[in-house]
Amino acid sequence: QADPPAIPILSAANERFMAAAIRFGFRHAGLTGTNPSVATLIVRDDGAGPRIVGRGITARGGRPHAEAQALGEAGTLARGAVAYVTLEPCAHHGRTPPCAEALVASGVSRVVSAAADPDPRVDGKGHAILEKGGLSVTPRVMAKEAASDLSAYLTRHARNRPQITLKMAVSPDGMIGRKGHGQVFITGPIANRQTHLVRARHDAILVGMGTVREDDPGLDCRLPGLENRSPRRIVLDPDLTIEPETGLVRSARQTPLTIVARGDTDADKRQSLMAAGADFVACDVVPGTGRVALPELMEDLGATGIQNILVEGGATVGESFLEADLVDRLILVEGETMVGEGGIVSPIDVASGKQRFKLTERLRFGPDQWFEFERRI
Ligand code: AOF
Ligand code: ZN
């Protein structure tokens, strides 16, 4: 295959192809383990306008990487082409040779990349290999957009813990339920389906024992076609009070259940819960409060490979995460019905959310309003 004539692909085209690559990479979001879901497009212009000759996306489970697959598809057409990658190509030897070396060997003439890779094995070394190999490198094209999809991976590296999203359904008067009433439906069926979609994109859902006692929730993803995307359920239960009859324990064989308890709790009870399919993570408690020491727990959970956690309640757990400044993203779903007297006050509502966080999205699902926020720094 002859090299294409040196027609520069314009910067507008750079953004167009990078946007396509970012959308493509989202397909495997949440399916690539501790690896980010990266996408690569190989684009070639022989004079009649640019065309895509190879596409790749990080495989389920994390390997092979996106570049290797895209280059495989492009074959000799990669020579003289431009590669669009949503993350800096890797520089380390894993189960396959470094993607940066594969790009050099393929004869690609230019690499356009979006997000920088904070993995210490890469972190600038990928781009350096490309430049040393004579390729021209255009980094940080649509970096912000790419980082938003790779945010769980990037948070784990930057903060040494999973990315944490707190989600609360609040009434217009700022309540999340009514004391002693079990599950109170604040939001309607459309918003609830959206919640299940959000669950499917997380490695774990976390709740406190208060919610388990009041609601006996299933905490699974019940959307048709996504039933097998139910994340691990994590219950904060420092004193190990969970009953073996609760729904979470009874379903532990279908959907993983992790109970977070102090190491000195009843060993027999732990044994029987483990026999039912649950597993345990030991925690420390904050002296005086009896509450789980969250920063340490988050670090421990991150070390087990959990990339992102959806915190789904209730008020005490939400408050603890907010107080510990562990909330990276906040989702508030505001229903239309007041709860009024006897209500459980939410630790955060739309007004205080706007003060503390940056509002990034505002949607409507039937009668409910869906607000998404991000950490300000
Ligand atoms: C790429 N392309 O598609 C992905 C990359 O365990 P390994 O060997 O797969 O390495 C994991 C690291 O590879 C991960 O931390 C990140 O730096 C990079 N992910 N790199 O060139 C890809 N998924
Ligand atoms: Zn790679």
Automatic annotation (TrEMBL):
It catalyses: 2,5-diamino-6-hydroxy-4-(5-phosphoribosylamino)-pyrimidine + H2O + H(+) = 5-amino-6-(5-phospho-D-ribosylamino)uracil + NH4(+); 5-amino-6-(5-phospho-D-ribitylamino)uracil + NADP(+) = 5-amino-6-(5-phospho-D-ribosylamino)uracil + NADPH + H(+). Zn(2+) binds at H65, C90, C99. Gene3D superfamilies: Cytidine Deaminase, domain 2, Dihydrofolate Reductase, subunit A. The active site is at E67 (proton donor). Binds 1 zinc ion. GO terms for molecular function: 5-amino-6-(5-phosphoribosylamino)uracil reductase activity; diaminohydroxyphosphoribosylaminopyrimidine deaminase activity; zinc ion binding. Its EC number is 3.5.4.26, 1.1.1.193. Pathway: Cofactor biosynthesis; riboflavin biosynthesis; 5-amino-6-(D-ribitylamino)uracil from GTP: step 3/4; Cofactor biosynthesis; riboflavin biosynthesis; 5-amino-6-(D-ribitylamino)uracil from GTP: step 2/4. NADP(+) binds at A169, T211, D215, G314, A315, T316, V317, G318, E319, S320. It comes from the Bacteria. Its cofactor is Zn(2+). GO terms for biological process: riboflavin biosynthetic process. Keywords: Hydrolase, Metal-binding, Multifunctional enzyme, NADP, Oxidoreductase, Riboflavin biosynthesis, Zinc. Substrate binds at R199, L219, R222, E312. Residues 12-137 form the CMP/dCMP-type deaminase domain. In the C-terminal section; belongs to the HTP reductase family. In the N-terminal section; belongs to the cytidine and deoxycytidylate deaminase family. Converts 2,5-diamino-6-(ribosylamino)-4(3h)-pyrimidinone 5'-phosphate into 5-amino-6-(ribosylamino)-2,4(1h,3h)-pyrimidinedione 5'-phosphate. This is Riboflavin biosynthesis protein RibD.
